[in-house]
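Morning!

This is the sequence you dropped in the shared folder:
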Amino acid sequence: MAAVHVTVWDDRDRVGEGRAPAAPGAPVDTAAPALFVHNIFTWGSDSVYGFAGQRPLADTRRLLLMDRRGYGDSPDTPRSDFATDADDVAEILGDGTLAAGPGGAHLVGHGNGAVAALLAAARHPGLVRSLTLVQPSAFTAAAHHPVVAGLLDRVRDGAPGIPDGVTPEQYLRASTEGLGMTMPEPTPRRLRAVATSMRERPIWEAKIPLAAIRDAALPVLVICGTWEEAPAAYREHVGLPLIAVAESLTESLGARLLRVPGYYPHTQEPAAVNAALREFWS
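The structure's back. Tokens below.
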């Protein structure tokens, strides 16, 4: 049994009953499952930042939505860590009750969750059929890019951390309304996720094993927003580095690149992302 909570969506038995019709041309089959790994402030099945918009994909395969430690229904952790997350991903992929079958599962990660997915795929390529990276926070893999290099210089040179006494609700407000975005409802579940995010191991400490991914010859899809309509401060400080990372990984891994409008591709443009995933997994 996995050490973390996994939400399982499988609507294949409902297709044809008028409740979850398959997409045109999509056969009801026993396709390989897909495992999703979320970013900060969220959990697997969350409709705001998580993968609720990907539920339609459960009409043809089992979807596994992992809650990283300290998020959703997974146990608490003193400090969230991408390396531990990668171990949890591998455990789920190897769990015969969840992702059993030859060839493993399709793996999808968003943001920091994409870093965990990269690490897990590099360590256990035999368990991964394909790898999808949604705006991956793999900054060290694109450290040569001037925009990313500038970001890494700022954080490594002692950019201000979270001041003592800042509450999760204050941090959530500053991270959303402070950048010109709408703040989600500060429910206890959301604030727990924010509190965990506040004490995550810095993602720029992750060393991304690009050579291992290339050597495994895994099919890779990178999904990135265009960020054109994002608040200016958010686009400058977050969007531009993430775009640079997406472009760099596309080149270094020989991946496909999908650009979609907005800055949260899978929640703002779920139909486009889901269509791309269906095609990629076929």
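Headline: The radius of gyration is 18 Å.

More detail when I'm at my desk.
O.
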